[in-house]
Amino acid sequence: MDIKILAAEMDLTCIRAYRLDALKSVSQTVVGADVVATNLDREIYDITIMKSSSRLDNGDMHRVNMDRDKIDAEIMSMGNRGNGRYVSKKELRKPTQMMKNGPGRNHSIGGRAENSKGFLPNSFDRVLLDAPCSALGLRPRLFASEETMESLQTHAKYQRKMFDQAVQLVRTGGVIVYSTCTINPGENEALVRYALDTYKFLSLAPQNPKVGGPGLVGKCELFGGKHAETWLTQSEAELVQRFDPSATLDTIGFFIAKFNVGQK
Fold it and tell me: Which GO terms describe its biological process (predicted)?
């Protein structure tokens, strides 16, 4: 809803918001040998997954009205059938009522993001993966009292799973941008190392504008080698952007890596 509301406030009509589990972003619907298109129906779209966004536009309202017309027609045809129980118009209209939630803070007509069952592989030109993270870069919340080594490793594990989904969604020639708001290298440089080692068709791309500093080089071992992370080479570190509160540039802590997707 935040995405839809912000898009409405900015008069942006090119943004479509969907609700789905990020770990199930790739459609698994298969009939025979063909994958069934869902939502985007084999079209190529640019996408920015961001914390931003739109009230229901005219097309959405038209679809709601059509759904209600269909429901009314179904009510007329079904009469009292339905296991011998009369199904009221109100009960049948619940799905469409769920699509509206009344006026929002900007006095828009409201609306809910559509549910999605995922998208076809290679159906996006660009994906921004703004991954959930430990948020150790947010000021004034520069503390780690609620984080442990185990929880930091857990963040890294599900971030890798999300990245695996993003790689499947972006076509050859496309772009993946990975970002976090943490200074933890296990969620940043170590993720980039994983991506480059796992998907040989990925390569780090230069970023413009380049404002942040370089990434971390080398590796880290803790607890007698029980926990080990490999980070970046010197040339790779120059292609990412690390914003660290300890640097002279006065920002919160966050991280950006941009990947070009080569021939899969």
Answer: RNA methylation
In CATH, the architecture of 11-28+112-213+240-261 is 3-Layer(aba) Sandwich (3.40)
The residues facing 242 across adjacent strands are 213, 255
2: annotated binding-site residue?
Answer: no
Domain boundaries defined on the chain: 11-28+112-213+240-261
Mean pLDDT for the stretch of residues 211-229: 91
Residue 228: name the closest of 149, 135, 159, 146 by CA. 149
Strand ranges (E), 44-149: 45-46, 114-115, 124-130
- Residue 147 DSSP SS3: coil
Catalytic residues: 181
Per-residue pLDDT of 108-150, as tens digits, reads 445 678 899 999 999 999 999 999 999 999 887 656 567 888 8
CB 204 within 8 A of CB 192: yes
